[in-house]
Design goal:
It is a single chain. This protein has 415 residues and is α+β, with helices and mostly antiparallel strands. It has 2 domains: 3-58 and 270-411, no CATH class; 72-256, no CATH class. Helices cover 52% and strands 19% of the residues. It is built from 15 helices and 12 strands. It has helices at 3-13, 23-63, 86-93, 132-137, 159-165, 198-201, 209-216, 236-246, 263-266, 268-306, 308-316, 321-357, 364-367, 378-400, 408-411; strands at residues 66-70, 82-83, 98-112, 117-125, 138-141, 154-158, 172-178, 182-193, 204-208, 222-223, 225-230, 258-262. The strands form 2 sheets. Strands 1, 3, 4, 5, 6, 7, 8, 9, 11 and 12 form a 10-stranded mixed β-sheet that branches. It has a two-stranded antiparallel sheet with strand order 2-10. It is elongated.
């Protein structure tokens, strides 16, 4: 066995019979600093990544990863038709990066009740619509099977609109749409959803694709566009560019051209805000590594000072400065490893408790969710542990040179 590691392990286990009364509190504080630092880093990363995933998931749930629409569309809720027939669906099916594609149509209008009125956007979807998002956030009623061939006049609205307009499942609501003339349509509330994302909840209603197309007076093969779900979000930009290249010179039978935009291009402010959160993570990581390293450096210095007599004895027996430095660095590795183990245990317990019990709550009007989200990015956790361990050990290399200044003749009289 390596001599330095063997001696460090004996000191760590206390097998030499000494009490280490002076260094024990310092060692405990150093390990506690490592544990707290690692726990804070892991929890911070879990919260930020969980928050970003939750917000991104809600944005994507309303508009998918990629949207293909009319090139002349001026805004996300503008209604200009393009042909979305089987040939276009086949094009997406042949793209290996595409997981799912679905049609949608939009119509801006107004809801009016006896007591209030509210602007809204009616979103029509077809039978191929992926209803998992609505089902996940459904709080009352049902999520119906939407149709592209018949108008059922059924609609799913948000909890925000239901509370404001005093509506419940089964109620009728009158909607009005302004084109060349005012058109009215009575719809029945069959479901109520709640995402706590007020930017969308306050205006988005879901109904049949056929209903919206009739309100827009479009042909059966037309809609506002296609929503495309990708298999790997990390390749979102590459997939967007690939689809844009395929549709660059493509026009539909009515002479309309297609444009392909990603969800990040449709919501630049929101994703720029999410990107800023990464800066906070880096600040926390550097601060926690600094705090943990500082406590470990102070602990190592006190251990070296306390064991000056042992260092002098080993030097008198022929031990080199390099051997002694390795000894104390191995001792530090054992202490750092133990502190990191406790830090991981504490962090994982808090993360799982929050995911299962929702102990910490948030104001949904401010944070778009009612509980603190916690993700489990195991790859990031591994990198944080590895980075914290390496950084802590490297910070101890400098203080270990103090051993070279200890002389055997004077150290053996040290008390």
């Amino acid at each position: 066995m390596n001599l330095a590691r063997h001696l460090a392990l004996r000191i760590y286990r206390g097998e030499e019979g000494e009490q280490r009364q002076a260094s024990r509190p310092v060692v405990v504080i150093a390990m506690a600093g490592i544990a707290i630092g690692v726990a804070v880093m892991l929890i911070s990363v879990a919260v930020v990544i969980g928050f970003k995933q939750e917000v991104r998931g809600k944005i994507v749930g309303f508009s998918s990863h990629i949207t293909v629409m009319n090139q002349r569309v001026a805004s996300a809720y503008d209604s200009r038709p393009v042909v979305t027939d089987d040939s276009l669906m086949a094009l997406f099916s042949n793209c290996p990066q595409v997981k799912h594609a679905q049609r949608f149509s939009l119509k801006a209008g107004m809801i009016k009740t006896q007591d209030a009125f509210q602007g809204m956007v009616l979103k029509g979807v077809g039978p191929e619509y992926d209803r998992r998002f609505l089902r996940r956030h459904l709080v009352e009623g049902e999520c119906p099977q939407f149709s592209d061939s018949a108008s059922t006049n059924r609609v799913v609205i948000s909890r925000l609109l239901a509370d404001k307009l005093r509506l419940k499942v089964g109620d009728k609501l009158d909607t009005y749409f302004l084109d060349e003339q005012v058109r009215a349509r009575r719809l029945q509330v069959v479901g109520i959803y709640c995402t706590n994302f007020a930017d969308f909840d306050r205006m988005m209603l879901f109904t049949d694709l056929c209903t919206v197309n009739r309100l827009n007076r479009w042909h059966e093969d037309q809609s506002s566009g296609m929503e495309v779900e990708v298999r790997d979000y990390e390749q979102l930009d590459e997939t967007t560019f690939a689809l844009a290249d395929q549709l660059a010179e493509h026009t539909d039978r009515y002479g309309q051209r297609y444009v392909v935009v990603s969800v990040e291009q449709l919501n630049p402010q929101m994703f720029a805000w999410l990107g800023i959160l990464d800066v906070n993570i880096w600040v926390i990581l550097f601060l926690m590594v600094g705090v943990a390293g500082f406590t470990m450096v102070s602990g190592l210095l006190i251990i070296i000072i306390e064991r000056t007599a042992m260092i002098g004895l080993l030097k008198s027996l022929g031990a080199s400065n390099l051997l002694l430095r390795k000894l104390f660095l191995w001792l530090s590795v054992f202490l750092i490893g133990r502190g990191m183990l406790w830090g991981n245990v504490v962090a994982l317990l808090l993360i799982f408790a929050q995911r299962w019990l929702g102990l910490f709550t948030l104001d949904p009007e401010t944070y778009y969710m009612d509980t603190v989200p916690m993700a489990l990015p195991w790859g990031y956790f591994l990198l944080i542990n590895l980075g914290a361990f390496v950084a802590s050990v490297l910070m101890l290399v400098g203080p270990s040179y103090l051993i070279a200044r200890i002389h055997p003749a004077t150290s053996m009289r040290y008390e």
